[in-house]
Amino acid sequence: MEFNQFFPPHDGISLRELASHLGAELLDDSAGNRRIRSVAPVARAAEGQVCYLRSRKGRGDLASCHASAIICEPAIRPIIPDNIPVLLTAKPETAFAMAGALLHPAALRPGAVVSGSTGVHPAAHVDPTAQLEPGVEIEPMAVIGARAEIGSGTRIGAGAVIGADVKIGRDCAIAPGATVIAALLGNGVIIHNGARIGQDGFGYAPGPRGMLKIVQIGRVIVQDNVEIGANTTIDRGTMDDTVVGEGTKIDNLVQIGHNVRIGRHCGIVSGVGIAGSTTIGNGVMIGGASGINGHITIGDGAQIAAMSGVIADVPAGARYGGVPARPLKDFLRDVAEAMARSDERAKLKGDRNE
């Protein structure tokens, strides 16, 4: 790929300096003065770029690799061509993430829509009772409601809506088109385009003439350093709060129902739906397109495979998958048995047709 105007290359850092920043070992010190300006995939990495190889499955990409350095773990080192300097580390993916953050810091969070804009843009609407600390940026067409409070270093993107009484901490990024109402956000929170935070939860009671709406008077609490993907929705609580714990990362197009409590440093992938009043522990990983039943508990460190249907509690540290979700080894055994039966039926049908 040619020069990318959206995320231009870094001015350059020496390979020796990069190795030190990553805590990696540069195997060929004579290459230490090479300048690294950007990251790239292995197959098309060129001079001035660094890439990483996570497994031997990517070996074929090395044939077209002309990177100035490649990050890998010791087990992968023997397959790297001798002409490519190696940065050796036990955690190549982590090192590559650190390299990307150093070389392309603007890609870490939603950027400004209006070039050079600082402070409150004249085309934004900020209620006179809102309180903005120094260094807050409000882009065109953004709306800041009554009594809202926003901390220094935070940017509110174009067309975003921050509701009345919302509190947003310092160094946050609210991308264009997002809405935040009935919510309290900590420091370092990133909310991507089109996310909806704090709207009604889904609650109704049967009445003589149809469904009666149950009022939702809780809040959404988002702790420090949480990232929420584009078009994700997080409903406010019915009477208690919906809580997203510190450091948790939520992908695009996730639905989180009212009164859900998510622990710290969880990872929730695109398409997941979490029904109301579910409790999710710390360090839980939930694969894409999984459905989580309401009023259940998923224990600390549990892992849920993609496209699973979780209908009951999951113990801490467990690995579950399937519909209904069950211990992963049981799910894989069931899949293997089903495939074997399918193959047997196909063979019998073939024998009858001969």
From TrEMBL:
<comment type="function">
    <text>Catalyzes the N-acylation of UDP-3-O-acylglucosamine using 3-hydroxyacyl-ACP as the acyl donor. Is involved in the biosynthesis of lipid A, a phosphorylated glycolipid that anchors the lipopolysaccharide to the outer membrane of the cell.</text>
</comment>
<comment type="similarity">
    <text>Belongs to the transferase hexapeptide repeat family. LpxD subfamily.</text>
</comment>
<dbReference type="Pfam" id="PF00132">
    <property type="entry name" value="Hexapep"/>
</dbReference>
<dbReference type="InterPro" id="IPR007691">
    <property type="entry name" value="LpxD"/>
</dbReference>
<dbReference type="InterPro" id="IPR011004">
    <property type="entry name" value="Trimer_LpxA-like_sf"/>
</dbReference>
<dbReference type="InterPro" id="IPR001451">
    <property type="entry name" value="Hexapep"/>
</dbReference>
<dbReference type="GO" id="GO:0103118">
    <property type="term" value="F:UDP-3-O-[(3R)-3-hydroxyacyl]-glucosamine N-acyltransferase activity"/>
</dbReference>
<keyword id="KW-0808">Transferase</keyword>
<dbReference type="InterPro" id="IPR020573">
    <property type="entry name" value="UDP_GlcNAc_AcTrfase_non-rep"/>
</dbReference>
<dbReference type="Pfam" id="PF14602">
    <property type="entry name" value="Hexapep_2"/>
</dbReference>
<feature type="domain" description="UDP-3-O-[3-hydroxymyristoyl] glucosamine N-acyltransferase non-repeat region">
    <location>
        <begin position="34"/>
        <end position="100"/>
    </location>
</feature>
<keyword id="KW-0443">Lipid metabolism</keyword>
<keyword id="KW-0012">Acyltransferase</keyword>
<protein>
    <recommendedName>
        <fullName>UDP-3-O-acylglucosamine N-acyltransferase</fullName>
        <ecNumber>2.3.1.191</ecNumber>
    </recommendedName>
</protein>
<keyword id="KW-0677">Repeat</keyword>
<keyword id="KW-0444">Lipid biosynthesis</keyword>
<keyword id="KW-0441">Lipid A biosynthesis</keyword>
<dbReference type="InterPro" id="IPR018357">
    <property type="entry name" value="Hexapep_transf_CS"/>
</dbReference>
<comment type="pathway">
    <text>Bacterial outer membrane biogenesis; LPS lipid A biosynthesis.</text>
</comment>
<comment type="subunit">
    <text>Homotrimer.</text>
</comment>
<dbReference type="Pfam" id="PF04613">
    <property type="entry name" value="LpxD"/>
</dbReference>
<feature type="active site" description="Proton acceptor">
    <location>
        <position position="258"/>
    </location>
</feature>
